[in-house]
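Module 6 notes. Inverse folding takes a fixed backbone as the condition and produces residue identities as the prediction. Think of it as a translation problem where the source language is geometry and the target language is the twenty amino acids. Below is one complete input and output pair. Work through it position by position during the lab.
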């Protein structure tokens, strides 16, 4: 349970970092700039040297029905990265929170 709480906190911290990067970029350019979840995932793949985003897309297109892939997964990949990471982190943290009693 402690490991899952830590994972939730890591997601929340990642969401705050991506949100801060978006705010700083918006202040620098004078225009609102928000990175999508797919953009951040692709950036991490590029830095680490992996191709997990393309692998996930290939797996999802082959496994999921078209009705779930096109509106569901594609739209989540286009959401702001800080929102996706924050929601996942909060859900994980709430599910594995310490129980009293």
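Target side of the pair, the amino acids:
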């Amino acid at each position: 349970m402690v490991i899952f709480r830590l994972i939730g906190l890591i997601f929340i911290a990642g969401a705050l970092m991506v949100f801060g990067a978006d705010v700083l970029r918006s202040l620098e350019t004078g225009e609102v700039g928000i990175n999508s979840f797919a953009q951040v995932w692709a950036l991490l793949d590029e830095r680490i040297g992996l191709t997990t985003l393309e692998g996930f897309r290939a797996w999802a297109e082959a496994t999921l029905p078209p009705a779930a892939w096109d509106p569901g997964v594609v739209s989540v990949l286009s959401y702001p990265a800080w929102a996706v990471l924050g929601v996942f982190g909060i859900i994980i943290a709430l599910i594995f929170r310490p129980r009293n009693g």
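Reference fact for the lab report: The mean pLDDT is 89.
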